[in-house]
Amino acid sequence: MPSIQTSYSENIRASVPGHIPDMTHADVVSRTVESAAGLGFGLPVFQGTADKAVRVFATGDTAAKFVGVSVLDRSASGPNGFVQFESARILLNGPISVTAAVAVKASDPVTVTADGTFSNTGGITIPNARWDTSAAAGAVANIFLK
């Protein structure tokens, strides 16, 4: 039988959006994706119109409609996320990697801006959430949802 993998890196790859970065307790649930364009990994998700359904950020959303963050799933049908009506993994609490829209520092509050990206200022403040690591604008950092 031929070798499947012949070279190995000394380090694990860098975190990507939607990755659960460590073995800290995390609550993950399944929810149906309502958004016609689907749902990418590591994005804030909000309550959909149906029970146990989620969608991407929409104008008028509030912290009360925030459900969690979409989790990276290799079995997702889309090339970079979940397709409409697919069952998505959603992190309710625990650590997760996301893209920071602006420079953030560990312990900053987590907000969702008007364009549906994660930040530390402006937009909707996610209750009991904090940036767990620091990052430059556009880089991946970890947040922790309680």
Written overview of the protein:
This is Bacteriophage protein. It comes from Ectopseudomonas oleovorans. InterPro entries: Struct_cement_gp24/gp6 (IPR054438). With 146 residues, the chain is mainly beta. The protein has one domain (27-145): Virus Head Decoration Protein, Chain: A (Beta Barrel), CATH 2.40.300. It contains no helices and eleven strands. The chain has strands at residues 27-33, 39-40, 44-47, 53-55, 66-70, 81-82, 87-99, 109-112, 118-119, 124-131, 140-145. The strands form two sheets. It has a five-stranded mixed beta barrel. A two-stranded antiparallel sheet has the order 2-6. Strand 10 and strand 11 form a beta hairpin. It is globular.
SSE map:
Elements: E1 27-33, E2 39-40, E3 44-47, E4 53-55, E5 66-70, E6 81-82, E7 87-99, E8 109-112, E9 118-119, E10 124-131, E11 140-145
Parallel strand pairs: 1-4
Antiparallel strand pairs: 1-7, 2-6, 3-4, 3-5, 5-7, 7-11, 8-9, 8-10, 10-11
Protein name: Bacteriophage protein
Organism: Ectopseudomonas oleovorans
InterPro entries: Struct_cement_gp24/gp6 (IPR054438)
